[in-house]
Amino acid sequence: MEKNHSQSLMSKYFTKEVKNKLSGLKTSNGFTVLDAVRSGMENPDSNVGVYAGDEESYSFFAPLFDPIIEEYHGYKKGELHKTDFDSSHIEINNLDSEGKYIISSRIRVGRNLKDFAFSPAISKSERIVAENKIVAALKQFKDDLQGRYCQLSNMSEEIRLQMVKDHFLFKKGDRFLESAGANRDWPEGRGIFYSNDKKFLVWVNEEDQLRIISMQAGGNIGEVFKRLTRALDILQKSLIFAYSGHFGYFSSCPTNLGTAMRASVHIKLPKLGRDETNLKTICASLNLSLRGVHGEHSNSENGVFDISNKQRLGVSETEAVNTLVRGVKELIINKKIMN
Ligand code: ADP
Ligand code: CIR
Prior knowledge:
The chain is of the alpha+beta class. The protein has two domains: 9-73, Orthogonal Bundle (Transferase Creatine Kinase, Chain A, domain 1); 87-338, Creatine Kinase, Chain A, domain 2, CATH 3.30.590. The chain contains eleven helices and ten strands. It has helices at 9-13, 16-22, 33-42, 55-60, 62-73, 124-138, 157-165, 175-180, 221-238, 276-285, 317-333, and strands spanning 102-111, 147-151, 191-195, 200-204, 210-217, 243-244, 248-249, 261-268, 288-291, 304-309. Strand 6 (243-244) and strand 7 form a beta hairpin. The protein starts with 8 loop residues before the first helix and ends in a 6-residue tail after the last helix. Bound molecules: adenosine-5'-diphosphate and citrulline. Citrulline binds at residues 8, 39, 46-49, 176, 253, 255, 289, 296.
């Protein structure tokens, strides 16, 4: 997934004027506009290139964040985020009942704890407090959601690598997060919770304090959504997430505000995949993002791609899933694009 240099949203909107206006401002967690743009500055192939250190970053540095949010999500100042977890609104539950195209389906949401700094600005001690709170909440899970929490610092290198390869665990040393300051004190305070069948997982203290994930083999996105919803209902009983009416759920990356939901399939597109630029254009026209099989900034393997809803803010959760549903329908069920 090649990207030309310096085409990030950061380089478009961090103008001299914005820089002059925002330099000198500091949030309560000591986060500055130079901290916010560091990832994009150090990684000119960034798509977006900015991160928030805390909730305040979005208001203090609004002249930078607002246009980026508007361009990425098509969401304007004054709008209110909407939410809908009613699974009966999902238009198609099984996207590939014949099992021909879809290898696996996954939905994740990002969450951060209210009153905590986000990963680029959190202190070492605050990160551990967050981890402890989250781990206590994870103990509530029963039946199929029940599982174990494994701290990254206690994991053997062999198991860690295997879990990354199997798409369960986040990568180590992501250069975009590194520049954003989100990898400080690695691996302390980080870990993964996984249910016995590994269909339900929670990443702790990676890009966001929680990445709550439901995934399974095949194309049954309806089942994946229902599992995620059940888990969220349980977690919300003991954790308070950072949220506002305008931004929805807060996240460190502005692309993940709102529903903070990325619904994806790993899909075989052998013919279309031969021309990745064209495939990217088709996905963009369907409001989908295209990634490689090992996540953001990775490559496709054997004609398998990760496609997902692009917009997460200004759409409800079921609308986010339906964007994927309609896109996949277009790609494989109508076969308009496959042939
Ligand atoms: P995120 O989804 O949290 O934004 P990434 O794009 O880095 O982050 O993906 C995280 C991991 O999830 C990667 O290993 C990726 O391959 C895996 N993944 C994403 N979608 C699917 C899917 N539909 N099936 C299996 N694994 C997936
Ligand atoms: C980037 O700017 O490319 C990284 N910081 C990740 C941004 C979020 N992902 C995306 O837009 N596809």
